[in-house]
Write a structure and sequence with these properties.
Blueprint lengths: L12 H4 L10 H9 L3 H8 E3 L6 E3 L24 H5 L7 H6 L9
Antiparallel strand pairs: 1-2
Helix pairs in contact: 2-3
């Protein structure tokens, strides 16, 4: 996949799209540690069981934004960000996210 034209504009659009952010093994523990919470407090407050019951997903704010997206479009858990978040758009893509992403626009010369 060629993402050479992607330049993140820190618009936060990818973090505002409705949809599950699934946590992989060890990610809940890493985020909890970063936030200074024990794993039980973290999972009770910031996660729920996925609809398919195959793991944990992050809760969303009432507007569907990620619970860790700040008003300044920064990630509160940047240093422990889930692989799913780190992977967009270099590892995986989604047409719905791409359509909203300011960084997906063609770079002007």
């Amino acid at each position: 996949m060629n993402n050479s034209h992607f330049v993140c504009q820190h618009c936060g659009s990818c973090c505002r799209a409705a949809g599950d952010v699934r946590l992989r093994t060890g990610e809940a523990e890493a985020i909890a540690a970063l936030l200074g919470l024990d794993i039980y407090a973290f999972t009770a407050h910031y996660t729920h069981v996925a609809v398919d019951r195959a793991g944990l997903v992050l809760v969303e704010q009432t507007d569907s934004a990620c619970v860790f997206l700040t008003a300044a479009n920064t990630c509160r858990i940047q240093n422990a960000k889930p692989a799913q978040c780190r992977g967009y758009p270099q590892v995986w893509r989604d047409a719905r996210l791409d359509a909203r992403c300011a960084g997906r626009a063609p770079v002007q010369p």
